[in-house]
Design goal:
Mean pLDDT: 91
Strand content: 5-15%
Number of strands: 8
Distance between the termini: 34 Å
Radius of gyration: 19 Å
Bound molecules: zinc ion
Helix content: 40-55%
Oligomer: single chain
Largest sheet: 8 strands, mixed
Order of helices and strands: EHHHHHHHHEEEEEEHHE
Length: about 290
């Protein structure tokens, strides 16, 4: 298992390079730049009570039970207020049109009227109903509130993903959803030498290897080769398409380890493929703030 998230200090240069190569995505990349940078800084510096990794069962992992379904990743006694306020500030910097909502949410968080830790626990337990009930009480649009909370979750889960990777080392994992947090991938990377496919989770930053002959979402197999959509003259990027579940997955091809890459920045850079695939009636494997276009 590897983590592709880059050190925070490398993020600005990675974003500048992505803008040069993908001018069509410049506005999105500039908007998400401060957000990604802040996420990386906070995740690297977050001091959480250590996980009891002895509770993680490798047998269960090999049969597809993700870490989040085995142990509690959200520690008791942490409120994540500071993380939420820092991410709200980063959102205001990147997306000034959300400033009013971020200010209102920030006030409620500072006053303890919203408990970010509780919302994280609901989403970790897939209690969407409980999270929806919280959104209804908030002084901001539910989509902006849940966007902010998804960023807080990313910081906490990224810190946990790093911790799990260090503690477990290599382990067997054969599913198309994330071994740490159970979310489906936002982007895939295929190494041109050897042809291995890696999937990337934008909810926690984890990368994992997955077979190239089946769909990560519905596991439909196509030993003769899966279907990919290409834009003319662009051979380094494509969208994997599944005709059974009607999902797509944007995919990059990499020849060697040339330059540092951040898979979340790469996913945002490929937003033109999201537009094309959604126009054709396909859905992303996981919704991300930049690929929910309709
Ligand atoms: Zn994940
Ligand atoms: Zn499928």
């Amino acid at each position: 298992m590897i983590l592709s998230s880059q050190a925070a200090s490398e993020v600005p240069a990675i974003i500048d390079r992505a803008i040069e190569q993908n001018p069509h995505a410049e506005n999105l990349l500039r908007a998400f730049g401060p957000i990604i940078l802040r996420e990386r800084e906070l995740a690297a510096g977050l001091a959480l009570p250590p996980l009891d990794v002895s509770q993680i069962d490798r047998e269960k992992l090999s049969s597809g039970v993700s870490v989040i379904r085995q142990i509690n990743l959200i520690p008791d006694g942490e409120d994540f207020k500071e993380v939420a306020l820092a991410m709200a500030a980063a959102v205001k910097e990147g997306l000034p049109s959300l400033a009013d909502d971020m200010n209102r949410l920030g006030e409620w968080i500072a006053q303890g009227k919203i408990q970010p830790a509780d919302v994280l626990k609901f989403s970790a337990r897939h209690e969407e109903g409980a999270a929806d009930a919280v959104w209804k009480t908030l002084p901001a649009s539910p989509s902006n509130a849940s966007f902010l909370m998804s960023l807080v979750a990313r910081v906490v889960f990224e810190a946990r993903a790093i911790e799990v990777a260090k503690a477990l080392g290599a382990y067997a994992w054969e599913k198309g959803y994330c071994p740490v947090c159970g979310t489906f991938p936002s982007i895939a990377l295929i190494e041109e030498q050897g042809g291995k496919r890696f999937l990337h989770c934008s909810a926690c930053g984890q990368d994992w290897r997955y077979t190239r002959v089946s769909c990560p979402y519905c596991e439909k197999e196509a030993p003769g080769g899966m279907e990919y959509f290409y834009v003319e003259n662009k051979t380094q990027e494509s969208a994997f398409i599944c005709d059974q579940c009607k999902k797509y997955l944007v995919t990059l091809y990499r020849a060697g380890h040339v330059l540092a890459r951040d898979m979340d920045v790469s996913a945002i850079s490929l937003v033109h493929l999201d537009m094309i695939m959604q126009d054709k009636g396909y859905q992303p494997m996981t919704p991300c703030p930049w690929n929910v276009l309709k």
